[in-house]
Amino acid sequence: MFNKDSKFEKFKDAETIIGASIKVKGNFNGQGDIVVEGMLEGSLKTAANVFVGEKAKVSANIEASEALINGEINGNIKVKKYLAIGETAKINGDVQCGEISIERGASITGQIIVSAEDSKKGDSKKEKIELEA
Amino acid sequence: MNAYIYDDFLNKSRYRRAINRVEIRLTDLGLNGKIIRLGAIKNIKDVIQAEMKNGIKNIIAVGNNETVNKVVSSMIANKTYGFFQKDVLFSIIPIGGNNSIAHSFGIKKEEDACNILLARRVQKIDVAYAGNNIFLNKAELFSNDAVVEIDDDYHLELNRKANIKIININDDNYLAFKNKIDSNDNNLNLIVSGRNQDNTFITSKHIKINGTGELILDETISVPMPTEIGIIEQKINVIVGKDRSFN
Questions:
Q1: CB contact under 8 A, B198 and A26
Q2: From CA B244, how far away is CA B238, in angstroms rounded?
Q3: Smallest Cβ distance to A21: which of B154, B159, B180?
Q4: What is the ipTM, given to two decimal places?
Q5: Nearest to B8 by CA among B75, B76, B61, B80
Q6: Could you tell me the domains of chain B?
Q7: How far is B165 from chain A (nearest CA, A)?
Q8: Which end of chain A has fewer CB within 10 Å, C or N?
Q9: What is the dihedral of CA B143, A60, A74, A25, to 10 degrees?
Q10: Residue A38 near residue A16 (C-beta atoms within 8 A)
Q11: CA B9 from centre of chain
């Protein structure tokens, strides 16, 4: 479902792509879109968007404008705008975002805060959900 | 106004015919200039510096990738280069094998090079360094235990079978991500190609490579590891063909 999402089509032109055979350790800071298909340990921060692939394993806190998560995340996710969680996603950590969509089958262990304050001024909406699928 | 730097291997008789063809074509086009033979001089830097002070406008390396490396290293190492940078153009007349840099400039044969010099299509490009050497196209990493540190922020642990290239300007029309590579953005591009289109693309200003093995610069120069790779402050203006493999 999310793979066809037009919001994420531009990932094809991502500034940084970490392939499946690569292991990255350290603090990854970027300005452009980042695709993670391999392993990442440390922190991941970008002013743009993050795509985490189905086979990716990320042990890091993630900060981005928008994100599409299909892989395994051990860490907190903070997304300013739209966060899409795919059916193969497995998240162990807290999630904070402006808007969210969660596909059936996704696993999230942690607190989810959906706050429209960041994405839409004056239209604040807060939800706290704890899920264990 | 033109200085043609002939590499010393061109003294061999097998290159005589190609040299003659080039010289006749250059004369026909009114592009003849001073010929400097590397075999006869000891300090190429001093010679090029003197030519730049005398107002030379075009410096043309005649030979292969190694010739290009010698000439560009000498150009940018000059104290005067910063002052003359805007005015001095560089190009290549490829003769012999191992001419991937000329090919990336869109210069396939020596006769094409003369026409390209006449057309004067100019592009500004970055010059990269690895250790004490410069390179224009790429550095290829050959190592089983390399750890690649990017901008002092993070490092990559690489699969042994991966094909690792650090690219300044692209010389491969079939390269994955070739459209992402900018020849004038002050950045290097690390590409790791694995099986089944498992590719990695990272843009960086500074890369440290630790471990054992070697880097091969522009298919010519071997640099031992560990080493550091980056972009030097000076850029060069090059005369390129329309079929160049970079933007």
A1: no
A2: 11
A3: B159
A4: 0.83
A5: B61
A6: 2-120 (3.40.50.10330), 130-233 (2.60.200.40)
A7: 14
A8: N
A9: 10
A10: no
A11: 19
Q: What percent of chain B has pLDDT over 70?
A: 95
Taking the C-alpha atoms of residue B44 and residue B46, their distance in angstroms, rounded to an integer, is 6
Cβ–Cβ of A23/B153 closer than 8 Å?
Answer: no
Q: What is the 3-state secondary structure (H, E, C) of chain A?
A: CHHHCHHHHHHHHCCEEECCCCEEEEEEEECCCEEECCEEEEEEEECCEEEECCCCEEEEEEEECEEEECCEEECCEEECCEEEECCCCEEECCEEECEEEECCCCEEEEEEEEECCCCCCCCCCEEEEEECC
pLDDT in tens, A4-22: 455 555 566 788 999 998 9
Between residues B180 and B166, the one the model is more confident about: B166
Work out the widest C-alpha separation in chain A, in whole angstroms. Answer: 44
* Longest pairwise C-alpha distance within chain B: 55
Tokens of B143: 């190592």
Query: In 3D, which of B85, B39, B79, B83 has the Cα closest to residue B59?
Result: B85
Instruction: Give me the phi and psi of A48, to 5 degrees please.
Output: -110, -135
Give Cα B78 to chain centroid, integer Å: 17
Under 8 Å between Cβ of B148 and B223: no
Q: Could you tell me if residue B151 is left (phi over 0), alpha (psi between -120 and 50 degrees) or otherwise beta?
A: left
Q: Are B22 and B93 spatial neighbours (Cβ–Cβ below 8 Å)?
A: yes
Distance CA B71, CA B77 (A): 10
- Measure Cα distances from A79 to A92, A103, A125, B19, B47 in Å: 16, 17, 15, 63, 58
Distance CA B167, CA A128 (A): 47
| Boundaries of domain holding A106 | 2-131
- Number of independent structural domains in chain A: 1
CB of A26 closer than 8 Å to CB of A58: no
Nearest chain B residue to A26 by CA distance is B154
Cβ atoms B215, B195 nearer than 8 A: no
d(CA B88, CA B71): 13
Q: Are A87 and A106 in contact (CB under 8 A)?
A: yes
Q: Check residue A119 and give its pLDDT.
A: 59
CB contact under 8 A, B198 and A37: yes
